[in-house]
Amino acid sequence: MFKTLYSKMLSSLLLAFLLLAALAFTMDWMLSNEQLHKLIIQLVEGAVIFTLAMAIIVFFLVTRRLRDLANAIDAFRNSSFSTPVKLKSSDPDGDEIDRLGFVFEQMAQRMIEQLQSIQTVDLQRRELLANISHDLRTPLASMRGYLETLLLKEGELTPEEHHHYLEVAAKQSERLSKMVGDLFQLTKLDANEVVINPENFPISELVQDVAQKFTLLAEKKGLRIEVGFTEPLPLVSADIGLIERVLENLIENALRYTASGGLIRVSLERGDAGVSVGIADTGRGMDASELDMIFDRYYRADRAKESDSGHAGLGLAIAQRVVMLHGSSIRVESKRGIGTRFSFDLPVVSSLAD
Questions:
Q1: Is the pTM of this model over 0.85?
Q2: Is the pLDDT of residue 223 over 80?
Q3: Residue pair 309/237 in contact by the 8 Å Cβ criterion
Q4: CA–CA distance from 106 to each of 100, 111, 112, 293 (Å)?
Q5: Which ranges in the chain belong to alpha helices (H)?
Q6: Which of the four pLDDT bands, split at 50, 70 and 90, describes residue 306?
Q7: Which pLDDT does position 330 carry in this prediction?
Q8: Which domains does the chain have, with CATH numbers?
């Protein structure tokens, strides 16, 4: 009761008039008619004066809190919307002005958080653009250098040298194409322009095919790739092209951060959520503080190593977004100096039919 500003003002005025009425009733039997007439006139005059005084007091109390709110709004604006607001008249269960102050405090805090987020994202975006520009420039410069050498020394090179220069230029062109493709794919995923086309297929065959694709590269780096699963696995329902991209990105990531002599193991097992796919390596691993950031497209775990390898560092971000489109997410476990394991679940056909 009396939580609204209107009820507070009305109750104050009613109380004042009740006091006057009680005083008039008390004096009625104590005074003569002439004295009573004079008293009534005085009471009417007093009531008018009292009403004006009460109105001024109530107006002052109301406008004081409104002035505090207006001053807080001005201060918040003058601080470029960066300083938190704290009002005395802020109560979600109070009258209209208290509730208005409470809502303004919440709104100001939300604006501050959003502005800080925008500034952080803008800084990360500019850093990402700078990093990718550097990454794109490296294969471009290499490819241009070898092609210019072929033009300048045309007819002077042996067939072996000519073939070697063309091979290096083609390799750099492939690296450049992959980085541009990663950027294009991530942009489409962020814009929600990628639509999955699920189909039923054996995940074990896809995993073996993708692992076979990287076997030669792994051998060149002195690594081994193993695929392990025991029981017969049911068909999964997913976009086979997108899941192949996820497997490629995760295996590439494992190859990049595992030293010679290491092992990369791709495992499949039936779980409550479907078929669980795991990619584990015996690489250098990561600290716990890095695990929450590795799927951020702006995060670069090792800037120097990424630049040297010619990768834009977007593979994990793409993989996470693709898996999320399938209603799952990529889990990661890692220990520094021991290795890292990524895993995600895919729905099986039988569970979907149920």
A1: no
A2: yes
A3: no
A4: 10, 9, 10, 28
A5: 5-28, 33-78, 96-152, 159-190, 203-213, 215-220, 240-256, 303-309, 315-325, 349-353
A6: very low
A7: 93
A8: 5-113 (no CATH), 199-353 (3.30.565.10)
